[in-house]
Amino acid sequence: MEVESEDKYFAHTVIKTFKFNRTHTGINITFDLYRNFGSGVMVDVQGYKFSSNEYRSFPIVFTMNVCEGLKNNDFGLQNLYLCGHPPVCPFKKGHFTICNWAPDYEKFPPYIPEGRYRMNMRMKYRNRMVTSLNFYMEIKSTRFMFYQ
């Protein structure tokens, strides 16, 4: 995972990943918000698929309001609130921790092709970039084989 942020908004960002089990990875995040953002934080998401030895643009592209995504539990974002001290909407300045978070894969779109992906997420407030996250993932088949 790679993080770029504007120093006037974010600081002391630490992100650690770990294996929950054989198939799932968890994330621990600690960060400081230096200003109040309210409910107007938007995230632009662009997906890239690894092909021919490089990440190429892939048709996973969308923009969403972060507070609406939390409210609707998009991608299992409500799991953020199971552990730690995550920010709540409207976002206010302070020190925050998110622990043992993993997305809910049941809430992802079906039929994403197998492969390696880079997801670029740009968080914006009033059309100004707050932070940019690149995270990498691999989609593997979950087919079951039955033998007679």
TrEMBL record:
Q: Which organism is it from?
A: Ignelater luminosus (Cucubano)
Tell me if Chaperone is a UniProt keyword of this record: no
Q: Which UniProt keywords apply?
A: Signal
What SUPFAM superfamilies does this protein's entry cite?
Answer: Ganglioside M2 (gm2) activator
- Keyword Signal in the entry? The reply is yes
Identify the Pfam families for this entry. DUF1091 (PF06477)
Name assigned to this protein: MD-2-related lipid-recognition domain-containing protein
